[in-house]
Amino acid sequence: MPVRNTKERILEEALTLFSKRGYDGVSVREIAGRVGIRESAIYKHFSGKQGIFDALLQRMQENYDQATKRMFMPSGDTAQMVEDYGSIGLETLSRIGELTFLYWLKDDYAARFRRMVTIEQFHSSEAGKTYRRFFIEEVLRFQSGLFAGMMERGYFHQNDPQLLAVEFYAPFFLLFHDCEGHPEKEAEALELLRKHMAMFAQQHQVAPKT
Fold this sequence. Notes:
Elements: H1 3-21, H2 28-35, H3 39-42, H4 49-70, H5 78-106, H6 108-120, H7 125-152, H8 161-178, H9 186-204
Helix pairs in contact: 1-2, 1-4, 1-6, 5-6, 5-7, 5-9, 6-7, 7-8, 8-9
């Protein structure tokens, strides 16, 4: 079996196991058994279980960066993103919001990763930091900066950008946790998000001059 395939299978099986039972509930021997190799073979690719976990974190960042490109999310510095978001309109912005929601809920790798760090945040400080970075801190930091720029350029009414970030993001955070394990709730959740984004825009966007 090629080295790369073995390494990839180790990561895949480890992520599946970690997402179900947490980091402490899985042994290197069990990961090796799922891959179909000896336990000693794991150490040809990783320093140990922590090394596997660290590789999963790195892979998640790469996965997410690729996903944002597929979702046509604006990129670049804050000033450029402000201009991009200010010009794309509510329909496109709402579509990006829906795709982001579905990514964390239904993308196979992202969903397993989210479950893993959700479980592990209470047992591992590193996992807790990762959970907060991906699902709280970076999201709110990005949106606060974006909304501040939108206000500065006259796209949004003046307000506290941090409060706007919390107001905008909170329903996403709540609903993808509420839909976990309940696919029958997804359609209703998406409809609620569409209404939320429309209401948010109505309340905070400055109407274009005619």
